[in-house]
Amino acid sequence: MKLYLDIDGVLLTRKQGVPDHVELFIDFVTNNYDCYWLTTHCRTGENKALNYLEKFYPDRLMKKINNIKPTDWATKKTEAIDFQSEFIWLDDNPFEAERAELIKRNKLNSLLVVDLDLKNELLEIIKEIVTLRKLISTAKKS
Q1: Which domain holds residue 120?
Q2: Which of 15, 27, 126, 140 is deepest in the core (most CB within 10 A)?
Q3: How far apart are CA 134 and CA 49, in angstroms?
Q4: What CATH number is attached to the domain comprising 28?
Q5: At residue 8, what are phi and psi to the nearest 5 degrees?
């Protein structure tokens, strides 16, 4: 299953701080999913995600995220999503046009909105990912 990751608001707080439990979160997603960047730091063929994050993350975390794959999109992040595959998309602020595209393709349930202002948000997101994956697997079997 593919997992698409935003950076600002998901892997960094609004004040560009490292959120609580980020190492556990990164371990979980990179060990269990085929991960892709879906961020303004990786668009129109330029992958600046790692260069951006290395300012905030220690080397041990950078090694873990080094294999997250780039995506290419220009206007809407949904341009980069492989709708033929099962996926989960983590973002803090998807645009209405992106939500509309997910609705049109009956994939709105694949979007998890992250709010790092909430306590232990990344731990809660891990739980939501596990639940969502089970729901998608069950629906696929039906």
Answers
A1: 2-141
A2: 126
A3: 29
A4: 3.40.50
A5: -65, 120
